[in-house]
Structure formats: structure tokens, C-alpha cells
Amino acid sequence: MEKVSVLSMICMTLSALMSFTVPVVLAVFLRKKYRADWLPFIAGYVVMFVFAFVLEAKAHAVILAGPAGRVIQGNVFLYGIYGGLMAALFEEGGRALAFGTVLRKKDRKVNALMYGAGHGGMEFMMVLGVTNINNLIYSGIVNTGGQDAVLAQMPAEQAAVASAAFAVLAETPPGYFLLGLAERFMALALQLSFSCLVFLALQRGRRRFFFIAIFFHALADALAGILSGMQVPVMVIECMILVLTGIVVLTAWTQMREAEDRGQG
Questions:
Q1: d(C-alpha 202, C-alpha 95), whole Å
Q2: 36: closest CA among 92, 98, 91, 116?
Q3: What percent of the chain has pLDDT over 90?
Q4: Residue 238 near residue 112, CB atoms below 8 Å
Q5: pLDDT at 92
Q6: C-alpha torsion sign, points 239, 240, 245, 251
Q7: Mean of pLDDT over the chain
Q8: Each residue of 95-142: pLDDT tens digit?
Q9: Alpha helices in the chain (DSSP H)
Q10: Which residues are within 8 A (CB) of 239 and not within 5 positions of it... i.e. 6 or more apart?
């Protein structure tokens, strides 16, 4: 089997490191520059982990294991819409719960960004950081010729998946590992924006922004899922998500400024 290039492993390492450091650097900046509170950042990390990686994952395990799951997974459009709605409902529901309870007194608008840094930071770490750490481990196995021994210890079905993963790592151009980093920056920008919208809904009484956040969140995830399932080129998908991210960021920024102009900052 072809070995994973050194440049690819450097890109994996860079992506992994940035996934852990970027959210913290952003939080430190908000703390030093605007005196943001640490509680929203911590709450964002906890809510994202509990609602997305625990509760939502359990819901998927139940729903997709049943008859409805076979129908959903058999249609790329249904699967994309389902995934988008589930992510939006669980994450925005958790976000609203946080702003309506433990963060009720942390009502300065900078804390909306602080929460977003934590919420998006957990996603950044779990999606990109953990993935690239696993990629580095797999790359080490491939480059030392240990893949055959590892595969021999696995059940046939699991070994087939792992073998394909080994091959993909060796064949993937180095730049693709940085493309994931660019995608995560867009996701972080979306999470910051969703946090601002839900903050306005819970802390400023503008309830419609909660549903706007759900709509945009579901749209972003569904669009990415459907286009990926249709095997649309990655660069085309990223460009479309970039445009949508710009719209969401502009919407959140405009509404936060409007709230400030009304004396609600």
C-alpha cells in the first residue's frame, strides 16, 4: 500500500492543532477586548457536547434503526433534510435553554459571541480535531507497514472499512486536509451567528429569531448533506455554503446592531 506523505501528515497536524486552539484564542480575545464572561463559553462547550454528540446521537440511533430510518437513508433528499432538521432542533434547542436559564443574567451581547465560541469550538474540536488525530494514527500505521496486522484482528466488515480508510489517506492530496479547516471556519462563523440570533430571541424578547436560527441551521446542514450525497464536487459545495454563511452572518450582525441602536446592547 502507498504511504501517506509527510506533507499530508503536516496538514493533518496543523488542522488538529487549530481545532483546539482557534476557539480558545477567540474566547481569550473576547475576554480581554470586551470583558466577556467565561460562563457562556463553558456553557457552549457543554451544551454542544450534550445536545449534539449525546442526545442527538441517541435519537439518530433510535430513529434510523427503525422502518422510517430505512426510508430516510434510502433517499438523499430525505436524509439531508432529516439530518439538517435534527441538528437544528437539538442545537438551537440547547442554545435557547442555555440563554434562558444559566445565562439569563449574562445579557451583554458580547456573551452571545462568547457562547458561540464555546458551542462552535466543541464542534470544531470533535469534527476536525478528533478526526485528524485518528488520521494521524492511521497514517502512522500505514507508514510503518502495520496495517495488515491491524486488519487481521478485525471482523471482516470492520476490516473492509478500515482498509478503505487506509487507502483514502494515502491517496488524498495534502491540501484536502486543509480544506476541512476552511469548512470548520465557516461552521464556526455560523455558530457565532446562530448564537447571536438565539440571544436576541431569549434575551431581547425577539422570539422570531429563534425560528430564523433553526431555519438557517437546518438549511446549511441539509444543503451540505444533499449535495454531498449527490456527489457534487467538494469545492462547489464549499462555495455554496460560503455564500449561505455570508447571508447568515450579515443577518445576525445587522440584527445585533439594530438591537444596539434601540438601546438593547
A1: 10
A2: 116
A3: 78
A4: no
A5: 98
A6: positive
A7: 93
A8: 999 999 999 999 999 999 999 999 999 999 999 999 999 999 999 998
A9: 6-34, 38-47, 57-63, 67-73, 76-100, 110-123, 130-143, 147-152, 156-171, 175-203, 208-229, 234-261
A10: none
